[in-house]
């Protein structure tokens, strides 16, 4: 097994003075340091190289410098929403030593006197700002790493449109250093100029008379999408089991509505609708907090599948499921007395079906 040859050092505004001895030693003995321009100039003899574009290029650069004791310099905790974590997709973990510093989320929580365990932490870097919408909730506290100065006005608009215009917003920048800045205001009417590199804190406060949307959307929010009633969608989601990073493939009447609910239900969930791309539907999904809705002509491997149509065609969708995947076939529509068939694909590919129908609630009709 190859031992560690790359040090990934998290650093804060205090520079070398804020580092643990092992991290400081790694920098002082490095032959080359790879890091962005915003990192402080350090009194060490190593050559300084800029970030190349893309993870494969970064990994190739690091490998080329392998014999020169390379150090990758990142902000705060390398394994918390950081390029330090992303490099693991390119290099084996056993070849890397990580040196964490205080994360920006820890510093923000300390300044705001928030319990970090009770805060939602989000990274909106390289992600649509609408990704934050499902996390808007009365009393919720959010900490977001964003794209910079352009992000706070966008988040302020999304909050206001969702009925959270009274929310407290705090921009925090350069925490722990001489240029530390904290800017505070309300989402409604936010206009403060902001620095380029920042963390955004939000304390969600509902406007009087507003009707904020829950995670599983009400029927009226999905009007025109062939959505099944709220009760049926809730039961479908409970069966299909949305979870972090899981992908749903959906096809047929009501598929778009269920896919939007799926994307809102779990962090980093993915959903693919089978059919041609629909830009208007993409835009509507994004406005509802589901900007990662995708389209495909054929089903990719998935953790769950929904099919509205003949049962025989629906059963064929089992082949695209990953082990442990779940399939829901809606064969007759969601009208009173309709039947829905559920299937689970087990570790050995076993198929178990059960039949239910919707009356005043769900009731089982056969084993």
Notes on the protein architecture:
There is one protein chain. With 367 residues, this protein is α/β, with parallel strands linked by helices. It has nine helices and 18 strands. The strands form three sheets. It has an eight-stranded mixed sheet with strand order 13-12-11-14-15-16-17-18. A five-stranded parallel sheet has the order 3-2-4-1-5, covered by helices on one side. The protein starts with 5 loop residues before the first strand and ends with a strand.
Q: Based on Cα principal axes, name the global outline.
A: globular
Count up the helices: 9
CATH C-level of the largest domain: Alpha Beta
Q: Secondary-structure element sequence?
A: EHEEHEHEHEEHEEEHEHEHEEHEEEE
Number of domains: 3
**Oligomeric assembly:** single chain
């Amino acid at each position: 097994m190859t031992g560690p040859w790359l040090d990934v050092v998290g650093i804060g505004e205090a520079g070398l003075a804020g580092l643990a001895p092992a991290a400081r030693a790694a920098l002082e003995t490095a032959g080359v340091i790879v890091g962005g321009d915003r990192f402080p100039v350090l009194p060490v003899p190593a050559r300084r190289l800029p970030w190349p574009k893309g993870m494969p290029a970064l990994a190739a650069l690091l490998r080329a410098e392998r014999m020169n004791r390379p150090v990758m310099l990142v902000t705060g905790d390398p394994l918390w929403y950081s390029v330090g974590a992303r490099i693991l997709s390119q290099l084996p973990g056993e070849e890397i030593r990580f040196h964490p510093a205080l994360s920006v989320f820890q510093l923000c929580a300390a300044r705001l006197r928030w319990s970090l365990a009770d805060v939602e932490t989000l990274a909106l870097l390289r992600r649509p700002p609408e990704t934050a919408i499902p996390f808007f909730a009365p009393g919720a506290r959010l900490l977001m790493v964003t794209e910079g100065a352009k992000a706070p006005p966008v988040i302020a608009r999304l909050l206001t449109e969702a009925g959270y215009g009274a929310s407290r917003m705090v921009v925090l920048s350069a925490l722990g250093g001489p240029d530390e800045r904290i800017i505070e205001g309300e989402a409604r009417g936010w206009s403060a100029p902001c620095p380029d590199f920042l963390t955004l804190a939000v304390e969600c406060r509902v406007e009087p008379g507003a009707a904020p949307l829950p995670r599983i959307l009400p029927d009226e929010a999905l009007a025109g999408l062939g959505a099944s009633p709220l009760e049926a969608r809730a039961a479908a989601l409970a069966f299909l089991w949305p979870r972090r990073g899981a992908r749903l493939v959906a096809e047929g009447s009501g598929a778009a509505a269920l896919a939007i609910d799926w994307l809102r239900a779990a962090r980093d969930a993915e959903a693919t609708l089978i059919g041609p791309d629909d830009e208007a539907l993409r835009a509507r999904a994004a406005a509802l907090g589901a900007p990662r809705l995708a389209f495909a002509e054929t089903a990719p491997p998935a953790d769950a599948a929904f099919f509205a149509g003949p049962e025989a065609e629906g059963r064929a969708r089992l082949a695209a499921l990953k082990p442990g995947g779940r399939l829901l076939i809606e064969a007759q529509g969601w009208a009173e007395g309709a039947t829905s068939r559920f299937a689970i694909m087990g570790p050995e590919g076993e198929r178990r079906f059960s039949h239910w129908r919707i009356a005043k609630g769900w009731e089982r009709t056969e084993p």
